[in-house]
Amino acid sequence: MVFLDLNRFKLINDTHGHSEGDRALQLFADVLREVSRGADVVGRLGGDEFVALLGEPGYAGAKALVDRTRGRLSAACLDSGLEYDLHFSAGVLQVEPDATHGVEELLSEADRLMYADKLRRA
């Protein structure tokens, strides 16, 4: 599981307006869909938060998705003519197939890991 959060999204809305914020969200969602694999499930949780459940197991598969997203997002921002760059933080949580944790517990842990990444990037 990968929990992703756009950095400084409120600043985009405040500076460029909510329609530009919507454009940024759509661009990010498009990039996530583009870099994900057939067995991956990617969705928006709300606001500027997204989650990816990966069919490719392990931390290495999740890290590869994050790396692909970072690379493609940079190019997509240039291609779209944005006046700013989009950046995100990600929390990677490896979930064992036989784990009995609930979805809320898993999301909470992945969110905690994402915030740790956000602090490193600040």
Q: How is this fold's topology laid out?
A:
Layout: E1 2-6, H1 9-16, H2 18-35, E2 41-46, E3 49-53, H3 58-80, E4 88-92, H4 103-121
Antiparallel strand pairs: 1-3, 1-4, 2-3
Helix pairs in contact: 1-2, 2-3
Walk me through this protein's architecture.
With about 120 residues, this protein is an alpha+beta fold. The protein has helices at about 10-15, 20-35, 60-80, 105-120, and strands spanning about 1-5, 40-45, 50-55, 90.
Give a brief outline of the structure.
The protein is of the alpha+beta class and 122 residues long. Helix content is 56%, strand content 17%.
Keywords:
122 residues, alpha+beta, Alpha-Beta Plaits, 4 strands, globular
Order of H and E elements: EHHEEHEH
The total number of structural domains is 1
Shape assignment: globular
Helix percent band? 55-70%
Which sequence of strands runs across the widest sheet?
A: 2-3-1-4
Average the pLDDT over all residues and give the rounded result. 91
* Poorly predicted runs of 5 or more residues: none
CATH architecture assignment name: 2-Layer Sandwich
Q: N- to C-terminal separation?
A: 23 Å
Rg (C-alpha, Å): 14 Å
Q: What is the CATH class name?
A: Alpha Beta
Number-wise, the strands total 4
Number of helices: 4
CATH topology descriptor: Alpha-Beta Plaits
User: DSSP strand (E) fraction?
Assistant: 15-25%
What is the CATH H-level superfamily? Reverse transcriptase/Diguanylate cyclase domain
